[in-house]
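=== How it folds ===
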Amino acid sequence: MRPNEKWHTREVEQLAKAFLTMKNANETARFLRDLLTIKEIQTFAQRWQVACLLDSGKSFKEIEKISGASSATITRVNQYLHYGEDGYQTALQRIKASKKS
């Protein structure tokens, strides 16, 4: 994270550190449920699904059909996937690496 960006506040840093304290997917899911509404969780999950589908080479039309995401959401995720802070790329690469192990 870049400390000089407006979105990167002390509170965001503390939230990121809270995620790091989770020991597994189950704990993280429970933390997400306490932190977010069900709709917010579903929205984030859909964005992650779109990122995974884009990374696998699916077309926008295929992704729209599979995920139900709007073309605007797919475009936004694609933009961040390629020109964002590399958060999607980092997670995708680490998941791929863990599957090879």
